[in-house]
Amino acid sequence: MLFLGCDSGATKAAFAIADDQGHVLAHRVFPGVDLFICGVERYRSAMQGYLREMLAAAGVQPQDIACAAFGLTGYGESRTAVGDMERALGGVLGDVPLILQNDAVMGWSGAMRCRSGICIASGTGSVAYGENERHTGARAGGWSVRFGDEGSCYWVAAQAIRAFFHQADGRRERTLLYDAFMERFDLSDPLHFGGEITEYTQDGDYARVASLQREVLELCRRGDPEAARIYKEAAGELAALVRALKRQIGFEGEEPVRVSYTGGLFHAGEYVLAPLREAIEAMGCVLVEPAFGPLAGAVGYAARAYLDEDALERVMQAVDESRPG
Asked: Checking CA distances to 53, which of 29, 31, 80, 216 falls within 20 to 30 Å?
């Protein structure tokens, strides 16, 4: 049996086709395509082109695929997106059983090996998804970086920008953060920072704002207490997502509930993981390292109804260890 998985977002669209023995027939990474940014026609054209290239690379026909699973940014988050995405993908795969989910689900699937638990995803935005042993699932967060997504890279950067303002006008004591931002943006007067940061972030480009999280991480490494406070608060916000899901889903008899993580914020390591671990252990959960990435998660999600746990683990590991061709 063959399984196709896709982890698709605005930055990249990763695909893999693997068989039930753990052989990866094709693995490709294409430019990202976002339905809400590029529109229905361009999205359809790009995704269908990617699928045809994948089938050709694997040397298979659509009918050879037992099941295909897609983790798609924005899936389920508008009234029309679900139908638009289903029609775009079905146009190539025809009668192949399709599983379309939000990309947060595939992050969970990979990190948790398709097993009971909760996965926090924190990159540009933040969201958490979990399932129990009965496959009851739910999500928390992910409402958009403009109005929510607390604990994300965007949120951390925004907190640092706000901290600079507060340090500049005396609402907070000045720390390394103040001097670092003055130097980083070549400021002679802190009042100029508003204009400089607007220009630097291209008037609020989400990914550009989120990239400033790396500056905060460097400050944390240098011992800045304000940066450490921001990461601790980010961990608290992410722990709140876990608390909400634990209450929503109900993990009766599954204590301690396993919690894992994925996304760029966690490159901060123990600066965020240590306070996160402390917070979730206080609610009867345990933090575990992610097993696999979201692409392996997508292939595993497609295969989980067909394979036992050992075979599923073998397939997911093969995808995770493969390299784009």
From this structure: 80
Helix or strand run (H / E) with residue 283: none
Angle between helices 225-249 and 213-221 (to 10 degrees): 120
| Whole-angstrom distance, CA of residue 153 vs CA of residue 158 | 9
Q: Where are the alpha helices (DSSP H) in the chain?
A: 35-38, 40-58, 81-93, 103-112, 153-168, 176-184, 193-200, 206-210, 213-221, 225-249, 270-281, 294-303, 309-321
* pLDDT, position 296: 96
Q: What is the mean pLDDT of the chain?
A: 91
Residues 159-179 have pLDDT tens digits of: 999 999 999 999 999 999 999
**pLDDT confidence of residue 254:** 66
Residue 126 and residue 265 in one domain: yes
Reduced to 3 states (helix: H, G, I; strand: E, B; else coil), residue 72 is strand
Same-domain check for residues 99 and 150 = no
pTM above 0.70, yes or no: yes
Per-residue pLDDT tens for 102-141? 889 999 999 999 999 999 999 888 999 999 988 899 999 9
Which residues are within 8 A (CB) of 267 and not within 5 positions of it... i.e. 6 or more apart?
A: 217
Q: What is the C-alpha separation between 124 and 121, in angstroms, rounded? A: 9
Q: How far is CA 299 from the centre of its chain?
A: 16
Inter-helix orientation angle 153-168/225-249, to 10°: 140
Which helix (DSSP H) or strand (DSSP E) does residue 28 occupy? strand 24-31
Find the domain containing 12 and state its range.
2-113+291-321
Beta-bridge partner residues of 3: 18, 67
Q: Which residues pair with 128 in a beta bridge?
A: 120, 140
- The 10s digit of each residue's pLDDT in 245-287 is 999 998 877 679 999 999 889 999 999 999 999 999 999 999 9
CA angle 52, 57, 62 (to 5 degrees): 45
- Looking at the structure, tell me whether residues 79 and 132 fall in a common domain: no
Same domain, 249 and 144: yes
Exposure string of 274-301, with b = 16+ CB inside 10 Å and e = fewer, is ebbbebbeeeebebeebbbbbbbbbbbb
